[in-house]
Specification:
This protein is mostly beta strands and 297 residues long. The chain is built from 3 helices and 25 strands. A hairpin with a 4-residue loop joins strand 3 and strand 4. The longest helix is centred in the first third of the chain and has 16 residues.
Protein backbone atom coordinates (compact mmCIF):
# COMPACT_ATOMS: atom_id res chain seq x y z
CA UNK A 1 0.00 0.00 0.00
CA UNK A 2 2.84 2.38 0.85
CA UNK A 3 4.51 1.77 -2.54
CA UNK A 4 1.22 2.46 -4.28
CA UNK A 5 0.82 5.77 -2.45
CA UNK A 6 4.40 6.74 -3.34
CA UNK A 7 3.74 5.91 -7.01
CA UNK A 8 0.61 8.07 -7.01
CA UNK A 9 2.54 10.91 -5.40
CA UNK A 10 5.32 10.67 -7.99
CA UNK A 11 2.74 10.30 -10.76
CA UNK A 12 0.98 13.44 -9.58
CA UNK A 13 4.21 15.42 -9.39
CA UNK A 14 5.17 14.39 -12.92
CA UNK A 15 1.71 15.24 -14.24
CA UNK A 16 1.96 18.67 -12.73
CA UNK A 17 5.49 19.64 -13.58
CA UNK A 18 6.96 17.33 -16.25
CA UNK A 19 10.71 17.56 -16.65
CA UNK A 20 13.71 15.37 -17.30
CA UNK A 21 13.43 11.62 -16.82
CA UNK A 22 16.86 10.03 -16.47
CA UNK A 23 17.59 6.44 -17.51
CA UNK A 24 20.20 5.11 -15.08
CA UNK A 25 20.25 1.39 -15.87
CA UNK A 26 19.65 -1.09 -18.69
CA UNK A 27 16.92 -3.01 -16.87
CA UNK A 28 13.76 -3.88 -18.76
CA UNK A 29 11.56 -2.25 -16.13
CA UNK A 30 11.54 -0.59 -12.75
CA UNK A 31 12.96 2.66 -11.48
CA UNK A 32 15.71 4.09 -13.67
CA UNK A 33 14.80 1.99 -16.73
CA UNK A 34 13.86 3.30 -20.16
CA UNK A 35 10.46 1.66 -19.84
CA UNK A 36 9.84 3.52 -16.57
CA UNK A 37 10.94 6.81 -18.14
CA UNK A 38 8.51 6.30 -21.03
CA UNK A 39 5.74 5.43 -18.59
CA UNK A 40 6.41 8.58 -16.60
CA UNK A 41 6.56 10.72 -19.73
CA UNK A 42 3.12 9.41 -20.67
CA UNK A 43 1.84 10.93 -17.43
CA UNK A 44 3.41 14.29 -18.14
CA UNK A 45 1.96 17.25 -19.98
CA UNK A 46 5.45 18.20 -21.20
CA UNK A 47 7.62 19.43 -22.70
CA UNK A 48 10.20 17.10 -21.27
CA UNK A 49 13.19 14.93 -22.13
CA UNK A 50 14.39 11.40 -21.55
CA UNK A 51 18.14 11.40 -21.01
CA UNK A 52 20.67 8.67 -20.22
CA UNK A 53 23.28 8.48 -17.48
CA UNK A 54 24.07 4.78 -17.07
CA UNK A 55 27.33 3.95 -15.27
CA UNK A 56 29.98 1.59 -16.63
CA UNK A 57 29.23 -0.69 -13.66
CA UNK A 58 25.90 -1.60 -15.23
CA UNK A 59 25.66 -5.31 -16.04
CA UNK A 60 24.90 -4.64 -19.72
CA UNK A 61 27.78 -2.29 -20.38
CA UNK A 62 30.08 -3.83 -23.00
CA UNK A 63 33.57 -2.49 -22.34
CA UNK A 64 34.87 -3.95 -25.61
CA UNK A 65 32.49 -1.87 -27.73
CA UNK A 66 31.74 0.96 -25.32
CA UNK A 67 27.95 0.60 -25.47
CA UNK A 68 25.11 -0.03 -23.06
CA UNK A 69 22.60 -2.56 -24.42
CA UNK A 70 18.92 -2.36 -23.44
CA UNK A 71 16.99 -5.51 -24.40
CA UNK A 72 13.22 -4.95 -23.99
CA UNK A 73 11.30 -8.08 -23.14
CA UNK A 74 8.14 -6.64 -24.72
CA UNK A 75 7.16 -3.61 -26.76
CA UNK A 76 8.02 -0.35 -24.99
CA UNK A 77 5.24 2.13 -24.08
CA UNK A 78 4.09 4.45 -26.85
CA UNK A 79 4.95 8.13 -26.78
CA UNK A 80 1.58 9.88 -26.75
CA UNK A 81 2.49 13.32 -25.41
CA UNK A 82 3.76 16.23 -27.49
CA UNK A 83 7.23 17.73 -27.11
CA UNK A 84 9.10 14.64 -25.92
CA UNK A 85 12.82 14.25 -26.67
CA UNK A 86 14.55 10.88 -26.34
CA UNK A 87 18.18 11.97 -26.25
CA UNK A 88 20.73 9.19 -26.67
CA UNK A 89 23.52 11.76 -27.05
CA UNK A 90 23.16 12.56 -23.36
CA UNK A 91 24.90 9.28 -22.45
CA UNK A 92 28.17 10.46 -24.00
CA UNK A 93 27.81 13.84 -22.34
CA UNK A 94 27.35 12.20 -18.94
CA UNK A 95 29.70 9.22 -19.17
CA UNK A 96 32.14 10.18 -21.92
CA UNK A 97 32.34 9.15 -25.55
CA UNK A 98 32.96 5.44 -25.08
CA UNK A 99 31.93 4.49 -28.64
CA UNK A 100 33.68 6.84 -31.08
CA UNK A 101 32.07 5.04 -34.03
CA UNK A 102 28.40 5.45 -33.12
CA UNK A 103 25.76 5.86 -30.42
CA UNK A 104 26.45 4.63 -26.89
CA UNK A 105 22.87 3.50 -26.19
CA UNK A 106 21.64 0.36 -27.98
CA UNK A 107 18.03 -0.83 -28.13
CA UNK A 108 18.10 -4.46 -29.24
CA UNK A 109 14.87 -6.38 -29.86
CA UNK A 110 16.79 -9.60 -30.56
CA UNK A 111 14.11 -10.54 -33.10
CA UNK A 112 11.49 -11.04 -30.38
CA UNK A 113 9.87 -7.61 -29.99
CA UNK A 114 7.70 -5.75 -32.49
CA UNK A 115 8.48 -2.09 -31.82
CA UNK A 116 11.31 -0.10 -30.30
CA UNK A 117 9.90 3.45 -30.23
CA UNK A 118 6.37 4.35 -31.34
CA UNK A 119 4.85 7.83 -31.47
CA UNK A 120 1.08 8.09 -31.77
CA UNK A 121 -1.13 11.20 -31.72
CA UNK A 122 1.75 13.38 -30.54
CA UNK A 123 3.62 16.19 -32.26
CA UNK A 124 7.16 17.57 -32.04
CA UNK A 125 8.82 14.40 -30.76
CA UNK A 126 12.60 14.05 -31.21
CA UNK A 127 14.45 10.71 -31.32
CA UNK A 128 18.21 11.06 -31.57
CA UNK A 129 21.49 9.22 -31.24
CA UNK A 130 20.32 5.66 -30.57
CA UNK A 131 21.34 2.34 -32.11
CA UNK A 132 18.03 0.55 -32.82
CA UNK A 133 18.25 -2.98 -34.13
CA UNK A 134 16.43 -6.32 -34.53
CA UNK A 135 12.85 -5.11 -34.03
CA UNK A 136 9.93 -5.55 -36.41
CA UNK A 137 9.84 -1.75 -36.69
CA UNK A 138 12.56 0.44 -35.27
CA UNK A 139 10.80 3.82 -35.11
CA UNK A 140 7.15 4.23 -36.07
CA UNK A 141 5.18 7.50 -36.24
CA UNK A 142 1.42 7.74 -36.80
CA UNK A 143 -0.52 10.98 -36.61
CA UNK A 144 2.68 12.50 -35.25
CA UNK A 145 3.54 15.70 -37.16
CA UNK A 146 6.62 17.91 -36.87
CA UNK A 147 8.91 15.21 -35.45
CA UNK A 148 12.67 14.81 -35.89
CA UNK A 149 14.66 11.57 -36.16
CA UNK A 150 18.39 12.27 -36.27
CA UNK A 151 21.80 10.84 -35.51
CA UNK A 152 20.66 7.23 -35.15
CA UNK A 153 22.02 3.89 -36.35
CA UNK A 154 18.98 1.88 -37.43
CA UNK A 155 19.51 -1.72 -38.56
CA UNK A 156 23.26 -2.00 -37.94
CA UNK A 157 25.64 -2.91 -35.18
CA UNK A 158 27.03 -0.27 -32.83
CA UNK A 159 29.90 0.70 -35.16
CA UNK A 160 27.82 0.84 -38.33
CA UNK A 161 29.99 -1.82 -39.93
CA UNK A 162 27.61 -4.82 -40.09
CA UNK A 163 23.90 -5.59 -40.30
CA UNK A 164 21.54 -6.28 -37.39
CA UNK A 165 18.38 -5.39 -39.25
CA UNK A 166 14.88 -4.50 -38.27
CA UNK A 167 12.10 -5.46 -40.68
CA UNK A 168 11.39 -1.77 -41.27
CA UNK A 169 13.83 0.79 -39.95
CA UNK A 170 11.70 3.95 -39.84
CA UNK A 171 8.00 4.11 -40.73
CA UNK A 172 6.34 7.53 -41.04
CA UNK A 173 2.60 6.96 -41.32
CA UNK A 174 -0.49 8.98 -42.10
CA UNK A 175 -0.79 12.27 -40.24
CA UNK A 176 2.95 12.54 -39.51
CA UNK A 177 3.45 15.48 -41.86
CA UNK A 178 6.50 17.78 -41.83
CA UNK A 179 8.69 15.15 -40.17
CA UNK A 180 12.45 15.51 -40.65
CA UNK A 181 14.62 12.41 -40.96
CA UNK A 182 18.26 13.45 -40.77
CA UNK A 183 19.39 17.03 -41.30
CA UNK A 184 22.06 19.15 -42.93
CA UNK A 185 25.07 18.43 -40.67
CA UNK A 186 26.97 15.20 -40.05
CA UNK A 187 25.75 14.90 -36.44
CA UNK A 188 22.16 14.68 -37.73
CA UNK A 189 22.89 11.89 -40.20
CA UNK A 190 21.01 8.65 -39.67
CA UNK A 191 22.68 5.43 -40.76
CA UNK A 192 19.74 3.33 -41.99
CA UNK A 193 21.10 0.05 -43.33
CA UNK A 194 20.70 -3.69 -43.05
CA UNK A 195 16.93 -3.67 -42.61
CA UNK A 196 15.20 -6.72 -44.03
CA UNK A 197 12.34 -4.92 -45.79
CA UNK A 198 12.52 -1.10 -45.97
CA UNK A 199 14.98 1.37 -44.55
CA UNK A 200 12.65 4.41 -44.51
CA UNK A 201 8.96 4.16 -45.37
CA UNK A 202 6.82 7.27 -45.95
CA UNK A 203 3.13 6.37 -46.16
CA UNK A 204 0.36 8.91 -46.95
CA UNK A 205 2.34 11.88 -45.59
CA UNK A 206 3.06 15.39 -46.85
CA UNK A 207 5.93 17.88 -46.62
CA UNK A 208 8.35 15.47 -44.93
CA UNK A 209 12.08 15.72 -45.52
CA UNK A 210 14.65 12.91 -45.70
CA UNK A 211 18.08 14.50 -45.93
CA UNK A 212 21.72 13.88 -45.09
CA UNK A 213 21.37 10.14 -44.44
CA UNK A 214 23.33 7.03 -45.39
CA UNK A 215 20.86 4.38 -46.57
CA UNK A 216 22.13 0.92 -47.52
CA UNK A 217 25.84 1.53 -46.84
CA UNK A 218 28.19 1.40 -43.87
CA UNK A 219 29.19 4.21 -41.50
CA UNK A 220 32.13 5.24 -43.65
CA UNK A 221 30.04 5.48 -46.82
CA UNK A 222 32.24 2.88 -48.49
CA UNK A 223 30.65 -0.58 -48.36
CA UNK A 224 27.14 -1.86 -49.02
CA UNK A 225 25.01 -2.86 -46.01
CA UNK A 226 21.78 -3.49 -47.92
CA UNK A 227 18.23 -2.82 -46.94
CA UNK A 228 15.81 -4.62 -49.26
CA UNK A 229 14.36 -1.26 -50.37
CA UNK A 230 16.06 1.97 -49.35
CA UNK A 231 13.60 4.89 -49.05
CA UNK A 232 10.06 3.99 -50.09
CA UNK A 233 7.33 6.61 -50.72
CA UNK A 234 3.91 5.00 -50.84
CA UNK A 235 0.25 5.92 -51.22
CA UNK A 236 -0.88 9.55 -51.07
CA UNK A 237 2.63 10.91 -50.53
CA UNK A 238 2.74 14.57 -51.55
CA UNK A 239 5.32 17.35 -51.60
CA UNK A 240 7.97 15.43 -49.71
CA UNK A 241 11.67 16.17 -50.25
CA UNK A 242 14.37 13.51 -50.52
CA UNK A 243 17.75 15.23 -50.36
CA UNK A 244 18.37 18.94 -50.78
CA UNK A 245 20.40 21.65 -52.47
CA UNK A 246 23.46 21.49 -50.18
CA UNK A 247 26.12 18.81 -49.75
CA UNK A 248 25.02 18.29 -46.15
CA UNK A 249 21.46 17.53 -47.25
CA UNK A 250 22.56 14.89 -49.74
CA UNK A 251 21.42 11.33 -49.03
CA UNK A 252 23.60 8.45 -50.14
CA UNK A 253 21.17 5.68 -51.11
CA UNK A 254 23.14 2.70 -52.36
CA UNK A 255 23.67 -1.01 -52.21
CA UNK A 256 20.06 -1.92 -51.48
CA UNK A 257 18.84 -5.26 -52.78
CA UNK A 258 15.79 -4.21 -54.80
CA UNK A 259 14.89 -0.53 -55.22
CA UNK A 260 16.76 2.36 -53.70
CA UNK A 261 13.96 4.90 -54.02
CA UNK A 262 10.52 3.64 -55.11
CA UNK A 263 7.72 6.22 -55.30
CA UNK A 264 4.29 4.75 -55.98
CA UNK A 265 0.62 5.19 -55.21
CA UNK A 266 -2.48 6.73 -56.74
CA UNK A 267 -2.03 9.88 -54.67
CA UNK A 268 1.72 10.33 -55.11
CA UNK A 269 2.46 13.80 -56.47
CA UNK A 270 4.75 16.77 -56.09
CA UNK A 271 7.63 14.89 -54.44
CA UNK A 272 11.18 16.16 -55.01
CA UNK A 273 14.35 14.07 -55.27
CA UNK A 274 17.27 16.50 -55.20
CA UNK A 275 21.04 16.24 -54.98
CA UNK A 276 21.37 12.64 -53.82
CA UNK A 277 23.96 10.01 -54.64
CA UNK A 278 22.08 6.95 -55.86
CA UNK A 279 24.12 3.82 -56.39
CA UNK A 280 27.53 5.17 -55.40
CA UNK A 281 29.69 5.41 -52.33
CA UNK A 282 29.70 8.64 -50.29
CA UNK A 283 32.38 10.14 -52.54
CA UNK A 284 30.33 9.46 -55.66
CA UNK A 285 33.09 7.55 -57.41
CA UNK A 286 32.31 3.86 -56.80
CA UNK A 287 29.10 2.24 -57.97
CA UNK A 288 26.83 0.01 -55.90
CA UNK A 289 23.74 -1.69 -57.25
CA UNK A 290 20.77 0.68 -57.06
CA UNK A 291 17.48 1.53 -58.74
CA UNK A 292 15.13 4.50 -58.77
CA UNK A 293 11.52 3.64 -59.54
CA UNK A 294 8.60 6.03 -59.89
CA UNK A 295 5.14 4.97 -60.99
CA UNK A 296 1.46 5.27 -60.14
CA UNK A 297 -0.75 2.30 -59.68
Amino acid sequence: MRNFVVFLLVFGIFRSFGGNFVVTNTNDNGSGSLRFALQMSAATAGPHTITFNIPTSDVNYDAATGVWVIVPQSTLPMIMQANVTVDGASQALNQGETNPHGPEIVLDGQGRVDYALRVFNASSVIVKCLNIRRFTKGVQLYNAPDCIISGNYIGTNETGSDTLGNDIGIEIGSGSDRTLIGGSIEADRNLISGNRHIGVRLLDVQHCTVSGNFVGIDRTGTYALPNYDGVSLEGAVKYNTIGGLTVGERNVISGNIDYGLPIFGAGAEGNSVIGNYLGTNASGDVRHRQHLRCFVR
